[in-house]
Amino acid sequence: MKLCRFIAATSPDVRIGLVPNADIVFDLTSVGIRRMQGLIERADLAGELTRLSQAGLPAVPLDSARLLTPVESQEVWAAGVTYLRSKQARMEESEFSATAYDRVYDAARPEIFFKSLPDKVVSPGEAVGIRTDATWNVPEPELALVINSSGSIVGFTIGNDMSSRDIEGENLLYLPQAKIYTASCAVGPWIVVGPSEEDVRQWSIRLEIRRGGDVVFAGDTRAGQIKRPFSELVEYLFRSQQFPNGAVLLTGAGVVPPDSFTLEARDSVRISISGIGTLENPVAVV
Ligand code: DO4
Ligand code: MG
């Protein structure tokens, strides 16, 4: 079952939707559900969504709905160096920081960093940004965990942790500038509720970058390559920190384009995760 935020063709209001199949979205706003927050906090969320899907609610065709990011009021955080590929790429990118990446991959404490305020998250179809002062920019295709205020994982979505590799590579202390800037984080298209971690680890993650009509990069990995259990990442995120609105945690990138590749304005970034769907965004200079 998939939960989304959307705008219908008939009105500019933001609605909460339930997507039971590839064709339609049930309008939960019709039964007074105007925010996801309350639903996400429910202990019986999957059961409640099943009940709502059988309640005969008004529906609109999915292809007529404009999907918004499912991030409503949660901070977005990100884990790093959770895949061997990420560790290798970053060690190659920076002699200066290589030891730090090598150490954090094996350390008990994971790398976790703040990524975005909810209001700054980019929706499907909106442009993600590349910085004017960066020369080496890449998308990072990441499985995202949707976590409620008690620290329980309630669903999964797709995140793009846009990154400026030349800034990150110059000095690790520049990481916030390489990672946090206008339109540097896209999340969507919806939240998949129900699967277990065991199921999710079977999912494939694909990154495709198009320029003009051509695919200029494509690469794949599996969520099963994430080194740490999801519960470990969430446990560290919630240590000595409260999230009254819940949180979204990107779980790291396992697909990294070759060092010769950098994004250009008007490229299109498509991230597909087999159990979720596709998050697609054009690229713009910000
Ligand atoms: O430490 C650099 C960032 C790591 C990251 O974003 C990732 O591995 O996905
Ligand atoms: Mg990342």
Description:
This protein is an alpha+beta fold and 286 residues long. It is built from eight helices and 18 strands. It has helices at 37-40, 45-53, 84-93, 98-106, 165-170, 175-179, 197-200, 230-237, and strands at 2-7, 14-19, 24-27, 59-61, 66-68, 75-80, 111-116, 128-130, 137-138, 141-147, 153-161, 163-164, 185-192, 204-211, 214-222, 247-250, 268-273, 277-285. The strands form three sheets. Strands 1, 2, 3, 4, 5, 6, 7, 10, 11, 13 and 16 form an eleven-stranded mixed beta sheet that branches. Helix 3 (84-93) packs antiparallel against helix 4. The mean pLDDT is 97.
How would a crystallographer describe the biggest sheet? 11 strands, mixed
Q: Gyration radius, to the nearest Å?
A: 18 Å
* Binned strand content: 35-45%
**Number of DSSP E strands:** 18
N to C succession of SSEs:
EEEHHEEEHHEEEEEEHHEHEEHEEE
**How far is the N terminus from the C terminus?**
35 Å
How would you state the average pLDDT, rounded?
97
Helix residue percentage: 10-25%
Model regions low in confidence, pLDDT < 50 over at least 5 residues: none
Number of helices: 8
Q: What structural class is derived from the secondary structure elements?
A: alpha+beta
In one word, what is the shape?
globular
Small-molecule components bound: 2,5-dioxopentanoic acid, magnesium ion
